[in-house]
Design brief:
alpha/beta; four-stranded parallel sheet
Length: about 90
């Protein structure tokens, strides 16, 4: 399996040029990473089979999931509770 972890990055061409990604972990938490709309655009081009949003404190990840679900039913967005003590 090919796994992609975005780390703290913006929506960069290098991410969009990756191919055959099975699982992607994409962070979205301004100001050092993408917002949910930039992340959705990048993920839709990346086309992973499974996608986990992470490092998203304060972002509307449910809205992110709705965008992906609407645009590409083949990408499975899995929401996890990365911040259980809040």
């Amino acid at each position: 399996q090919r796994i992609y972890v975005s780390g703290d990055t913006e929506d960069i061409p290098e991410m969009r040029n990756l191919e055959n990604i099975d699982i992607a972990f994409v962070s979205m938490n301004l100001p050092y990473t993408m917002d949910i709309y930039q992340a959705a655009s990048g993920v839709l081009e990346l086309e992973p089979t499974i996608m986990y949003p992470y490092h998203h404190r304060g972002q509307n990840i449910q809205r992110f999931k709705e965008i992906i679900d609407w645009e590409d039913k083949d990408i499975e967005v899995r929401l996890k509770d990365w911040y259980p003590n809040q």
